[in-house]
Amino acid sequence: MRDTAVVVTGAGGGIGAALARAFAAAGARVAVNDLDAGRARAVAEEIGGVAVPGDASEIVPAAREALGGTVDTFCANAGIAPSGGPEAGDAVWGAAWDVNVMAHVRAARELLPEWLERGRGRFVATVSAAGMLTMVGSAPYSVSKHAALAFAEWLSVTYRHRGVDVHAVCPQGVRTDMLASASTAGELVLKDTAIEPEDVARAVLEAIAERRFLVLPHPEVGRYAVARASDTDAWLGAMNRVQRKLETIQRQRREDGGHQDEHQHQEEAP
Questions:
Q1: Phi, psi at 74, each rounded to 5°
Q2: What is the pTM of this model?
Q3: What is the pairing mode between strands 5-8 and 29-32?
Q4: Residue 182, CB-side half-sphere exposure with 13 Å CA sphere
């Protein structure tokens, strides 16, 4: 990675910031992207990189210029995790699709001509275990992350013989702001086995060194994927049990909240 040019989107905190720090420590020149300009500048100053704030979907030209005219590695890390199912509005679904999928497509569209001409380049997609499995409580997240994995697979299938390496990063829970603000589903499924962002960054660098497509900071995700493929109905049944447990927790919390409200009203009554 020494002296190579790296772009990391969504790098104002969490996994993105950890990736930026890891690449910089390995000797790379890093462009730090985030919608929050202040956070992007803070991380860039910390690692001796350059801040390129803005929408991750449109960042490649500015990042390329900031890095001296080339991009060797692009980390499509920015993502959102809305909750809900079919009842979620079109705007929610559209935002998940745009950030979690189309930002990857737009970056690849900009980068591939340069990479194919010189015969090398690297695309790192932060996908999530939800892309290999699913995530209870969030259809937009699960569906868009499946699509992000599918796009990364397609890139690898199509361009690996032309020097383009692709890596799909598929962790479960990671101790980030996104997890801290997670819904009950996130608490139930992810928090007990959550790891640090730095653990993810180390796994990414190891996968790059080995030229390995799947990056599994939680190795058990690979076993779950095998179980899902080999006995899909058993896997769906197990996940449905998680869903029922989630519904029980949510119902209990609603009831507890109702009791608390009733108690408060009784105390406030004259």
A1: -120, 125
A2: 0.88
A3: parallel
A4: 22
Cβ-based burial of 175 (10 A; exposed 0-12, middle 13-18, buried ≥19) = middle
Distance CA 32, CA 147 (A): 25
Whether residue 113 has pLDDT greater than 80: yes
What is the token pair recorded at 257?
């909240």
Look up residue 39 and give its amino acid: R
> Tokens 């720090």 label which residue?
21
Nearest Cα residue to 16 out of 201, 191, 181, 148: 201
Q: What percent of the chain has pLDDT over 70?
A: 89
Torsion, CA 21, CA 27, CA 30, CA 32, rounded to 10: 10
**Taking every pair of C-alpha atoms in the chain, what is the biggest distance, in angstroms?**
79
CA distances from 134 to 27, 107, 172, 210 (A): 36, 25, 11, 27
For residue 190, the model assigns a pLDDT of 61
pLDDT-derived band at 110 (thresholds 50, 70, 90) equals very high
- Beta carbons within 10 angstroms of residue 82's beta carbon: 19
CA distance 171 to 195: 9
Euclidean distance between CA atoms 270 and 267, whole angstroms: 8
Q: Is the dihedral of CA 96, 98, 99, 105 positive or negative?
A: positive
DSSP string over 56-106:
GGG-HHHHHHHTTS--SEEEE-------BSTTS-HHHHHHHHIIIIIHHHH
Which pLDDT does position 6 carry in this prediction?
A: 98
